[in-house]
Amino acid sequence: RAKERGGGVYEVFDDGMRERALRRLETENSLRRALLHDEFVLHYQPQVRMVTGAITGVEALVRWNHPERGLVSPAEFITSAEETGLITTLGAWVLEEACRQSAAWSAARPGHPPITVSVNLSARQIAHPDLVATVAATIERTGVDPATLCFEVTETAVTDDHDRAASVLHQLKALGLTLAIDDFGTGYSSLRALQRFPFDAVKIDRSFVRGIETSEQEAAIVAAIVSLSHALGLRTVAEGIEDVRQVQRLRGLGCDTAQGYFFARPAAPEALAELLGVTPG
Ligand code: C2E
Ligand code: MG
Ligand code: MG
Ligand code: MG
Questions:
Q1: 152 C-alpha vs ligand 3 centroid, how far in Å?
Q2: How far is the centre of ligand 4, averaged over its atoms, from the C-alpha of 203 (Å)?
Q3: Which of 31, 40, 44, 61 has most ligand 1 atoms within 8 Å of its beta carbon, as the pocket-test mutant?
Q4: Which of 12, 29, 136, 154 places its Cα 20 to 30 Å from the Cα of 243?
Q5: What span, in angstroms and rounded, lies between the C-alpha atoms of 193 and 203?
Q6: Tell me: the pLDDT tens digits for 88-128?
Q7: Is the pTM for the entire model greater than 0.90?
């Protein structure tokens, strides 16, 4: 059909491609510079036990502390980092930083139950042949207790080569850490993913939580996810809880853990230390 519209179409298409390639190169360069200048920071968002409100863990979420733009959200750079392959370097930095922070919090809270630190893993990281060795080395170097480390993986991050992905996830688990399936229910074969991969926890996507008070249908889906997860021996974490009615509803459905703005927004480690009762100094 493009042909019928004449030769000009091809030129426009070429310009668009050139522009995209240029923009991609620009983004790649600025991400590279940001890594070099140590401009990334981790914020942490608490995950709380639904029944008691006690903090059981935190999710590490990366931000780009840009010299001019301020804190830039991962929505604006994770895709580029994946496309350019820089996610491997960025992901290794995130892991190292999260493990150091976790070990520091554990050391600062003797006698307290440990806090699980969850780290997001992207498809590109899982596909990288060095991932398992990198994770093992990072655990060793930082002295973090691997039992307090959890990787969050979306279903789409493991759809490319199922057998390879399954093998990688099993090798990661053999290091003593746990795995959660992120944004559960948004993919095409979420149930198959639960069966195929060795997950320990299910993170119920925010889109289901959002409708839980207003839509019986959404509530039924969440109820089904919780009971299915429990039947398979998996913990459940509800994402994106913004008000108390959602908490009450999810508690009624037997959901184990909650994460969302209602409890706490992602925050710098100093703010978390206060929530965790870690005395400064
Ligand atoms: P995610 O892993 O599903 O993380 C949850 C996102 O939901 C976070 O957005 C969090 O700030 C946001 N959120 C939490 N509670 C609420 C709530 O009550 N309401 C609303 N509207 N949002 C809430 P954030 O930090 O912007 O991260 C977005 C995505 O970027 C993450 O989604 C994850 O896929 C990706 N990401 C973040 N950090 C990393 C990282 O270190 N590595 C990789 N590979 N991806 C990351
Ligand atoms: Mg996540
Ligand atoms: Mg999520
Ligand atoms: Mg998400």
A1: 8
A2: 10
A3: 61
A4: 154
A5: 13
A6: 999 999 999 999 999 999 999 988 889 999 999 999 999 99
A7: yes
